[in-house]
Design goal:
It contains 26 helices and two strands. It is mainly α. The protein has a two-stranded antiparallel sheet. The relative contact order is 0.10.
Amino acid sequence: MSTERTEHIPSGRPRHRPLAPPAWLLKGLRPSAAPIPWAAAARAGIAMATPVAVGFALNEPEYGALVSMGALSGVIGDTADAYRMRILNIAVPQLFGAVGVALGTLVYGHGWLAVGALTLIALVSGMISSIGTVASVSGLLLLLNAVVGAGLPLPQPWWTAPLLLSAGGLFVLLLTLLGWPLRGRQPERVAVAATYRALADALEAAGGPDYDDCRRQVTHALNQAYDLILGRRARVHGRSPSLVRMLAQLNVVIPLVEAAPAMHLRGAGLPPEIPAAVRDLARAVEEGRTGEPVPDLPVPHTPAERALDAALRHAAALVHAPDPDPHNIDDRLGRPAALTVRARRAVRDMMLSSASWRYGLRLALCIGLAQILVSVVPVERSYWIALTVTFVLKPDFGSVFSRAVLRAVGTAAGLVVAAAVLAEVPRGWWDVPVMVVLGALIPAFSAKGYAFQTAAITPVILLLSDLLNHQGFDLVRPRLLDSLIGCAITLVAGYLLWPESWHTRIGDRLADTVDDVARYVERAFGTHPDTEAGRQAARTARLQARRRIYREMSGVRNEFQRALTEPPPTGARAAAWWPLVVAVERIVDATTAARVRVNHGAEAPGGEEVAIVIADLRALAEGVRRASTPTQLRPAALPPGDEASVLAPVRHELAAARAIAADDDH
């Protein structure tokens, strides 16, 4: 068969070019530029190999394999930076995993009872997974261990396997916590310092073409830092001095972040002293330096320059303050609810969420079909089919379609390694050094992408399975077949039968963001209360609204990246939204810059102009919500406005967003 195709170009002359894999597949197979987490790799190698060695020493290799399987789940779940979050990420899923393997063990060999039990567990697992990160890992482990318990003959009595699997996960947690006394607060401190450094890069790029990318890095760093510190604050009773200090240092970044768009809209670069001063603050935060003088800064002249100067001087004064007043911290985002309150709220939202039920039903349908298949057709060690379904059909791991294809590719690559190990390495003590290497590859390859993670996990699971059932090289071919069957079930029952999975949601999320921008403009330039308490409450509400908008834009970008990995036509439709995504980001920046200029001396816009901008934003949001592509927006012309107004840049960005749709119509 020919591997070339003929493409006709306008001149009529044929041009030959070789066939190439589709872009969405190449994107998934391209390794990420993320650095290798060497500490995590070393920890994983030790955690995976030590139980195997102890099992051989005690002449109980099956027990060692089960503990190592539990360690594998801990290694996969150890993705947080802060130690308190790592405790939750590792320990809580172990509890769900223990429940899962216990339920699976109880229905092992019971035919249709096992099918019904696993289908019900899949429904619960899918609904749990929609709550959040820790719940997602917990739901995953609940179902995975239930599948293993129902598919493998595990040691008796029934509580043995849950105990051994939990011991493996807790062993990973113990290894993780060894560094806590030395760097207990370092992750939070590093995250705050990273926010300052990202801001310095954005200020350095202000007025240039690289500013938008740098500003997005600021949003990402700020989100990560707030997530770490607010998560820690929710678990600290009373006022912790170190927590107060980090929260204060993070809060004073907000005025600087708000001033950056105003400086960028000037179209000229900043004096190098300003980014240098922000980088010095980052070093002071990271090193805990105090008592240093406020840096010398250029004299400000415009409202935007005065805003940046005031924000930078205030930040320097607070960062270098020896002991921030714990009762005078501007708690901009509000204290988070207690864990019990948030847990009850999450469970209530999960039970009332149609998206949660839909995902649970999708997962239950696929697991049920997988179990029915292996019950009707005799498939040896058939648990691998359901395991494949579970790994592929995860709501927070990206496109189901691309994950199914990438898992098949990664499994095939991993089976090549597993075949070599099972064929050449004799069962026994030689498995220990092999497990050290294979275990260390899991965090290293996970950082590079899903296909790479699958290729690293596959030989580990096969080696542990061999220690449990002693099939050796005969495990390889059935596992490849099982993986392909699992991927096929997921593609048909978990993807093609659910139209929502192959329609992009970028337009809906973008419309919600534009609506929030309209509310932000209303809060920023509407009528303000006369009392100081009222003005402070309005200011806090405005800050919360701005932070929510930037978080939503991060979510839109994540949805956009997910949609790009879908096959045509979904990926192509997603790409069509990209110019409008950028335009909305610029509208948000222009609105923030306008508010900053008013705060520092610029004339506030009139009520009529504010009302026009709000109405136009809401009209744009409604048009985006109704349109399946930007070409269906059919924009109307904007009324003329005062070019000297602080809202003029906002109106210009709105006009640019409408022009994108108008250009696409032709």
